[in-house]
Design a protein that fits this description.
Metallo-beta-lactamase, Chain A, 241 residues, 14 strands, alpha/beta
């Protein structure tokens, strides 16, 4: 199974999972044209995508979904709660429990955000972004993973001392906000004993830097682990499980 990150950050998110002829796109938070361009850079195309999975209804995760789905006739899988937050005008499939798409076993994992939101375990890979806390379910599932894409959104000190208004700082720091560098690294240190790689993503443009993410991770995570801090500006990949 191959993992490619098409986009990651508060300016757009999308992740490609490929396994023996099956391709899934998790979120599509860039325009159809931009996602197709980045997929071309990765050696593939939207024409090869079998399904789109949605985590939640914020624009940095769904901006291109409607156009992509209708143009390429790709079904969109999402929970009922997420569906009710969208205005999608395309083919949708509602899930409420684990399901399969060809050779991929998909387990929805609820995250903790200010709108209904879902992470996923897909075979031995997990993707968890837009969560204010490490939920018990995320903590429980992480030792079963060989690879993970985990939000590492902000440095707490940068956020507190930065220019954001107080209400926005409070939202980000809340249990229904976004995951800090420290909390992301602590999960991997405590529960990531079987991980072969970790991808740290969804970085804030204003309250984080790649250098700080790396420093925090290398200070907290003691085991030798292949990890990457995902670019906000371009596609990243490919990682094999």
């Amino acid at each position: 199974m191959q993992i490619s990150v098409v986009a990651s950050g508060s300016n757009g998110n999308s992740c490609l999972i490929e396994n023996k002829g099956t391709s899934l796109l998790i979120d599509a938070g860039k325009s159809c044209r931009e996602i197709e361009r980045r997929l071309n850079n990765l050696g593939t195309s939207l024409e090869n995508v079998n399904a789109i999975l949605l985590t939640h209804a914020h624009s940095d995760h769904i901006a291109g979904v409607d156009v992509i789905s209708r143009r390429y006739n790709i079904p969109v899988y999402l929970s009922k709660d997420v569906y009710e937050q969208t205005n999608l005008n395309t083919k949708t499939k509602i899930f409420s429990k684990s399901f399969k798409i060809n050779n991929l076993k998909i387990k929805p994992i609820q995250t903790s955000h200010d709108v209904p939101s879902t992470g996923f375990k897909i075979n031995d890979f997990g993707i968890f972004t837009d969560t204010g806390i490490i939920t018990k379910e995320i903590e429980k599932i992480t030792p079963k993973l060989k690879g993970i894409l985990l939000e590492s959104n902000h440095d707490i000190d940068m956020l507190i001392n930065g220019s954001y208004p107080a209400f926005l700082k409070q939202r980000i720091l809340s249990d229904r906000g976004h995951l800090s560098n420290i909390h992301a690294s602590e999960l991997i240190e405590k529960q990531g004993k079987n991980l072969n790689f970790a991808l740290l993503g969804h970085l804030s443009a204003n309250n984080n830097t790649v250098r700080i993410v790396k420093h925090t991770f290398e200070t907290i995570v003691k085991k030798k682990l292949n990890y990457n801090v995902l670019s906000r500006e371009k596609e990243s990949g490919v990682w094999d499980i």
